[in-house]
Please model this.
Amino acid sequence: MISIKDLQVAVEGNLILKGVNLEVKPGEVHAIMGPNGSGKSTLANVLAGREEYEVTGGAVSFEGKDLLEMGPEDRAREGLFLAFQYPVEIPGVSNVNFMKTAVNEIREYRGLEKLDAMEFLSLVKEKMRLVEMDEKFLSRSVNEGFSGGEKKRNEIFQLAVLEPKLAIMDETDSGLDIDALRIVANGVNKLRSKERSFVVITHYQRLLNYIVPDFVHVLVNGKIVESGGKELALQLEEHGYDWIKNEQAAATL
Amino acid sequence: MSKHKKIETNDIKDWYLGRFSAFENHLNGSRDIPFHAVRKNALSTFSALGFPGRRDEEWKYTNIAPLLKHQFGLAGEVGNVTEETLRPYLFEGLENNRAVLLNGRYSEALSNYRTAARGVIVCSMKTALKQHAALVEPHLGRYARLEDEAFVALNTAFVNDGVFVYVPDDTVVEEPLHLLFLSDATAHSFFTSPRILLVAGKNSRMKIVETHNGLGDHAYFTNVVTEAVNGAGAKVDYVKLQDERPNAYHISHLQAHQERDSNFSFLNFDIGGRLVRNNLNLALKAENCEGHLIGFYIGGGRQHIDNHTAIDHAMPNCFSNELYKGILGGKASGVFNGKIFVRQDAQKTNAYQNNKALLLSDDATINSKPQLEIFADDVKCSHGATVGQLDDEALFYLQARGIPKAKAQAMLQYAFASDVFNYIPLESVREKIDQLVHERFDNI
Ligand SMILES: Nc1ncnc2c1ncn2[C@@H]1O[C@H](COP(=O)(O)OP(=O)(O)O)[C@@H](O)[C@H]1O
Ligand SMILES: [Mg+2]
Model:
């Protein structure tokens, strides 16, 4: 699905990712955990095509294609989706118009017929039920005045509508109360399939009780320092990131 | 240097003064009417004023030198304009509600406005001056002051045609009127001086859509003056769409006069033209009036679009609302000047002004100047002005959902402007302007 090799990324001249390696196969769910500032969002954003992030080394191939050569819209059309940590408010653009444009752009790219108004509406209503979102959000401006939890649900709603091959979720759990967390996780679990992969970025283990990953990676200071199964998340929960940092420090001594 | 400039400006002034005798010769019968004295007086006012220069405070940011380089003659007859020619400029549902002006002249053949309301007059200014003098003369030239504006004086001197709209007291006109101006510059250059006089009687209702389009690639100059008289309790919705050719100069002057309890709304969309200047003046002359000045402009290339607005609160308990938004790309420049006067008597005035500009390129510029002069103490006035760029974060968010950059930019531009479009009171007009603006987004 995606193969990240020795990816190095700088922001404003500072090296943030210092050689990240990650291989995700179809249907797999990978969790990336790590302390604040370790570079998790940087990784997510650089994969989505954000220009401020400068790739200074390494390679990323997505479904056999060179991801880093593509503009952000083509990455999305090829099937990559980023659920943003901080979804942007866009006053004046309605959610429904936004999603309709996006769906039809992606369909056109994939050689599919555009959806007409009726087809689109029934698709959208079905997906809203998945994340228990009220239909009134359709006519509202994208994320404008949404609560933190509503914004996150809107991200998962978009994920459901756009049906990507790979979904990267950047701290989708942050700012969610336990009920909202359950709704979001249920939505994601229903979207899991043999073909669709997920990279779940989170600071806390909590989300992984609901979305059970196949692999867990720990990102510290721009590098993946530990990889393992789902039990790694529990260890982190118990011992904190210091444990891994100390282990790291000991290893380099 | 400045001396040299002065002579040039005088030369072109003399050029226009020199057109007057040819103009008079074409007037035939309408030379003998009392209004001809008004024309002659306007000509001498124009002669005394001359064209404004950049030292003139009101023209500081609008350089009309490109306009003054042309020696525009009087517009000739237009050949070959048919129903088919007009089709692109029509609005759904308003196809049979039009008054058509070709090169500033009213076309009886192509105009087809009818209304079920009794006593309503929609006719050419030429006809009105002869047949409805008693209704026209108390108003024509009484509001738009020559002394203040050389272009008003120039228009008035050369007025022969235009449109007269008269709505009797207590008359509700259901059929919106489409004033369709078409300038045919395929064969040559010219200037036009159309005049619009709207007299809306007490408690009357009227909706007008005025459009300006052109044909051909020669330069031309539209110098239009509108006087809108709103009787007590009248409600008038006026939409103007300026979509002139890229080689066109468009200077317009609106003077609205409002009586007690009247509600006048003027929506102004500038999407064409090379050099555009709108002087938009509302005079709230009696208590309890409502005035709206809403506008949107979009410019690219080397377009220049200047909106000079003035709202004069003369009496108590009036409300005015002004919203102007513009999008400028390329090397385009814009000017917004918003004067609000609140006179000493105008207690309990509510006046709101907001203007926002979106600059899409480093070379695009906007000069905006709110100017509030308040002489009453119990008033609520607010104004806001912002200049910004497209939000990169929002752009990325849209792109990250598969929307190509150009389309994402267009969506954000539209989002910026959308509240202005919501003011358009006629759906088919809103849809059409929407579509035209979207086409402009794609190639700004
Ligand atoms: N746009 C940016 N400009 C400057 N520094 C940035 C930017 N984005 C991230 N950084 C820096 O990169 C580091 C990693 O940030 P981030 O990827 O957001 O971490 P995480 O998501 O793991 O908390 C931090 O030190 C942060 O300050
Ligand atoms: Mg982060």
About this structure: The longest strand of chain A covers residues 14-24.
